[in-house]
Amino acid sequence: MIRLIQNEWMKISYRVGTWIMVGLLVLGMVATLIFAVKTNDGDQASGDWKTQLEMMNTENKKELKETENGFFKRSLEKEIAINDYRINHNLPPEDQFGKNAWTYVKINADLLQLVGVFVIIIAATIVSAEYKHGTIKLLLIRPPSRMKILLSKYFTVQLYSLFLIAVLFILSFILGAIFFGFNHDYVYLSYQNGEVIEQSQIANMVSYYLAHCAMFVVLGTLSFAISTVFRSEALSIAISVLAYIVGASITSILMFFFDWAKYLLFANDPAQYFADTPTFIEGMSLGFSLIVLVIYWAIFLAIALIVFQKREVKTG
Amino acid sequence: MTNVLELHNVSRHIRGKKIVQDLSFSVQAGEVFGFLGPNGAGKTTTIRMMGGLSPITSGDIRINGHSIQTSYQHAIQDVGAIIENPEMYNHLTARQNLVHFARMNGKVDEARIDELLELVSLQHVKHKRVRTFSLGMKQRLGIAQALIHRPKLLILDEPTNGLDPEGIRMIRDYLRRLAKEEGLAVIVSSHLMSEMELMCDRFAIIQTGKLIAIEDQRAETKQDDLVNYRMKVAAGELEEAQKLIGAFEEGVTVREEERYLFFSMPEQKMPELIRHLSSASIHLYEIKIEKQTLEDKFLSLTGKKEADV
Hints:
Chain A is mainly alpha-helical.
């Protein structure tokens, strides 16, 4: 199995496209870096942040009484709790500081979207390219079972996405540290089940990144399954990328009207639990979403494996 | 002689259509076996079944005694193949391609890779990408790829397709050498009869999915078998020679066509006949054995079958 993964890695690492993707990612980081440096106006500390937060909270509490919308209510509750905590424990909010290495890492989490698209493309091509070039026959008249061959391809896709994420994370951190330095005074607060929790910045960022990756792991698997079943790169890239881009907004519209929408794939993006706004539907938790995602993931992978096992090998 | 490949009543039906019907034959170690048939006769389907790429509707294929259906991994270990075109990874080098396929069969043996590159004369371009290769070079790399794990059976589907005469000759020499020196069983499919005649020891002819003949090229002609001859004599002596031959052996018919004489005669009688004609002062210019070519045989066999239908 390790030899098969070595093979797959060799095949993608000698493709120009693979390195163009890494190049584009680095280019994206350079762009965000330039933007971040230009907009960084240094130390913002103003002595009266406590009075500002208190004013915000009285405003929030007034609105909380008036509003009927559950979503709006919950986002107000969260803001009030966090602001109170900051005032009571003397922890200034983020806008009191200039940028630091971690804020830059957080900005670059947006580039994970790019990583997602790249992973979908690799997932779509790794199987169908063998059909396109006819090499699938030489691959399948060898002792390793079809199951092993397909799994080795799948692991290689995930290895590649891990590689891209690591490049993004580590390089962002290094660039951020060089250009903005560290800031040890800022404390990140998260709000879970009515409680405010202090978190270290690295733990926060790692979980933030992991949460943003979950979606494209599942979509990469979808793309992999489509390309295995239909042997068409174009089809699987189109469907998966489209789903990746518009799936979330369509689902959020559905979620306003239907309760069952919470079982849809895109309603369960774990990233929402790490965002500043609360979830759309009450009663959804990270655990629930992870279970839903794992079910989708398992279905996609199972379809790919079953179809590939049964398939009569034809090319062209 | 051991049978490396055995087909037992192999059939393949696709949606009620009989693509291959009740095919049985075997290929032995050390021989080059031709698998002939017109386009669409079911050659490629049969070859796909040998490699486990297409399911078998009924019957069985055994490689070194292992069924391709029930003990696939044992069976396929002894098979090296090129099916249809020699498709390689174009963006990898020749050497990387061989490493790739070697890994699939277990440990990579560097010495074996070099040995094979040497055998197919690609040593000098081993670090070049396959994209830059000619078809002949790809075909040779395909053979190296198929031999990497020292298989006992080599399956080649149309190996000379699209090659120039020099390339064809090279492939032919490799295959004959592999069969003779390494005791490989080689099965080669083709629709080019003249090519197969030079390459194969035995061959099977199939048509519309059915086996219609197995011919052995090594079979020796027996002493009293009739052999076809073509003879050229001086222009003015045609008639006289014709008479003399007819009188020499009873029941022989001598045909004259474009100043040549054609007749059948047991081989052992020929020296006597030549002496006889010479002593009668016939000017003999040429005597040649007229062999029935594989192509003639093939056409007569397939033509006859078609007439039957």
